[in-house]
Automatic annotation (TrEMBL):
<feature type="domain" description="DDH">
    <location>
        <begin position="154"/>
        <end position="296"/>
    </location>
</feature>
<feature type="domain" description="RCK N-terminal">
    <location>
        <begin position="5"/>
        <end position="97"/>
    </location>
</feature>
<feature type="domain" description="DHHA1">
    <location>
        <begin position="355"/>
        <end position="460"/>
    </location>
</feature>
<dbReference type="InterPro" id="IPR036291">
    <property type="entry name" value="NAD(P)-bd_dom_sf"/>
</dbReference>
<dbReference type="Pfam" id="PF02272">
    <property type="entry name" value="DHHA1"/>
</dbReference>
<dbReference type="InterPro" id="IPR003148">
    <property type="entry name" value="RCK_N"/>
</dbReference>
<protein>
    <submittedName>
        <fullName>DHH family phosphoesterase</fullName>
    </submittedName>
</protein>
<dbReference type="InterPro" id="IPR051319">
    <property type="entry name" value="Oligoribo/pAp-PDE_c-di-AMP_PDE"/>
</dbReference>
<dbReference type="Pfam" id="PF02254">
    <property type="entry name" value="TrkA_N"/>
</dbReference>
<dbReference type="InterPro" id="IPR003156">
    <property type="entry name" value="DHHA1_dom"/>
</dbReference>
<dbReference type="InterPro" id="IPR038763">
    <property type="entry name" value="DHH_sf"/>
</dbReference>
<dbReference type="Pfam" id="PF01368">
    <property type="entry name" value="DHH"/>
</dbReference>
<dbReference type="InterPro" id="IPR001667">
    <property type="entry name" value="DDH_dom"/>
</dbReference>
Length: 497
């Protein structure tokens, strides 16, 4: 019977623990995380609460056939690895490098471990055994669809694109041009997040910022990346004929398109585009490779959120072509004063109920400050779910974050706001936007502020109610407020509040 010993149980390598526990044989996990021990025991996985860096913790453990060093921190994992190799000189050891390894650390890990798992090089496949990739038939179908295009292709991201959307659009342009199709990476809205702007500027990515009144007649074909329906989180006509759709989000309705690849198992759309670049046998442009790796890292929160073996493998493929110096510059831009002010207002204005915090930050000039504020609230002690929202002209933008296992934010926001706006996202990261047409009819600033105050109450109550009562949304606390808005300013058209 094979005996597998796991020392440490970090976020990235938890899936390794899960896979190991599913195998035949005996497994033991030793970690200093008491909550992880409790969770593992609840799942019938043998676990022991002890410091894996302490030689005494493994002094009485039988020699394992395979040993995994699976914490998150490089220094802790190195100390664990050294103690494990001393205790078990002949055991095969798979060691996770951690997120802040120096060249000396890498050398030491390589010296002591039989296999080193590095998220930036995706050697995790040694432990996870197996990756997902699109079939050869899918790549052939995409090629056929692209070669049928007679004219110019617009590769559209969602509004105000994030790194995953930007990188995916640039990569699909590379693929289209490789088969003789002229293409542009296009977006509506603005790229205002400082890291996203740094990515575009430092990599000199060629993007077209579309205005709402720009004619679409410049293009004879359209592709959607990182979203799947025209008119939903983009400013395209809802009935637009779409030639290609490539996304990793769960669809919110029927997905139009001649070629559709919805890879919900992937952590990022950039992962899917990396695989297609491979299938098309294209040389990786360093700018595109750097953008794709950054897109994967952002969407998986540095390989800790909804990560899949395919994401690790894509990172491994991209790694040799990435401009590491530029990537470091992208990840460390200066934080603008407006963003800091938004975060401060979110902290000051927050409403807490149990482990949930909701905050209105009032008027905003940069909607990309909202997810950063939501992240900051999530870092507060005792908070597991956050919603931050702000007003820009006649729109309200919402950003939500959660680390609670029993919360699906995408479904929660859809339950709360889909009937009065547009909402969606992942279980732990989601957003929404609502139109407040009634602001345009307000006569003075005092009336505007009164309406804003009521809208804040509506949004807050809807969110709390949706969290408590999914899948149904009861009327409850916000009914009279909503009715007042509708009767005073006219019935909404389904897209306004």
């Amino acid at each position: 019977m094979v005996f597998r010993l796991v020392l440490g149980c970090g976020t990235v390598c938890r899936q390794v623990t899960d896979r190991v526990a599913e195998r035949d044989g005996r497994v033991l996990v030793i970690t200093d995380d008491a909550s992880a021990v409790e969770t593992l025991r609840d799942e019938s996985v043998p676990a022991r609460h002890a410091d894996p860096t302490d030689p005494d913790a493994i002094a009485t453990v039988d020699q394992p056939d395979v040993l995994f060093v699976a914490g998150d921190r490089t220094d802790v994992n190195l100390a664990t690895l050294e103690a494990a190799r001393e205790r078990f000189p002949d055991t095969m050891i798979v060691a996770y490098l951690g997120g802040n390894a120096t060249a000396a650390d890498c050398s030491r890990f390589t010296e002591l471990a039989d296999h080193v798992v590095d998220p930036t090089e995706a050697l995790a496949e040694h432990a996870l055994e197996g990756t997902a990739s699109p079939s050869a038939e899918a790549a052939i179908e995409l090629r056929e669809q692209l070669t049928e295009i007679d004219g110019r292709l617009a590769v559209m991201t969602h509004d105000n694109p994030d790194p995953d959307a930007i990188a995916s659009a640039v990569a699909l342009v590379d693929i289209a041009e490789s088969v003789g199709v002229d293409a542009d990476a296009c977006y509506f809205g603005a790229i205002s997040h400082q890291e996203n702007r740094a990515m575009v500027n430092l990599l000199e990515l060629d993007l077209r910022n579309m205005a709402p009144d720009d004619p679409l007649t410049d293009y004879s074909a359209f592709a959607l990346v990182d979203h799947s329906r025209p008119g939903v989180n983009d400013q395209l006509p809802p009935d637009l004929h779409v030639d290609v759709v490539i996304d990793h989000h769960p669809p919110r309705g029927p997905v139009p398109g001649e070629f559709v690849d919805l890879r919900q198992g992937a952590g990022a759309t950039s992962t899917v585009l990396t695989e297609y670049l491979e299938h098309f046998d294209l040389a990786f442009d360093p700018r595109t490779a750097t953008a794709l790796l950054y897109g994967i890292r952002v969407d998986t929160s540095d390989f800790t959120r909804e990560v899949s073996p395919a994401d690790f493998r894509a990172a491994s493929v991209l790694s040799p072509y990435v401009d590491d110096s530029t990537l470091r510059q992208i990840e460390q831009p200066s934080l603008e004063g407006e963003t800091l002010e938004t975060i401060a207002r979110a902290i000051k204005n927050r409403i807490e109920r149990e482990s949930v915090a909701v905050a209105s930050v009032g008027r905003i000039g940069n909607r990309d400050a909202l997810p950063q504020a939501a992240d900051q609230l999530l870092a507060m002690k005792g908070i597991e779910t956050t919603l931050v929202f702000g007003f820009d002209d006649e729109m309200v933008y919402l950003s939500a974050r959660s680390r609670a296992a029993d919360v699906d934010l995408g479904e929660t926001l859809r339950d709360a706001f889909d009937r009065i706006g547009s909402a969606g996202g992942h279980a732990d990261m989601a957003g929404a936007q609502l139109e407040i047409g009634i602001l345009g009819s307000a006569d003075d600033e005092e009336e505007v502020e009164s309406i804003v105050s009521i809208v804040e109450e509506v949004i807050t109550n809807r969110f709390f109610e949706a969290l408590e009562t999914r899948p149904g949304i009861p009327v409850g606390a916000y009914t009279q407020t909503s009715e007042w808005l509708f009767t005073q300013h006219g019935e909404p058209d389904g897209e306004s509040i």
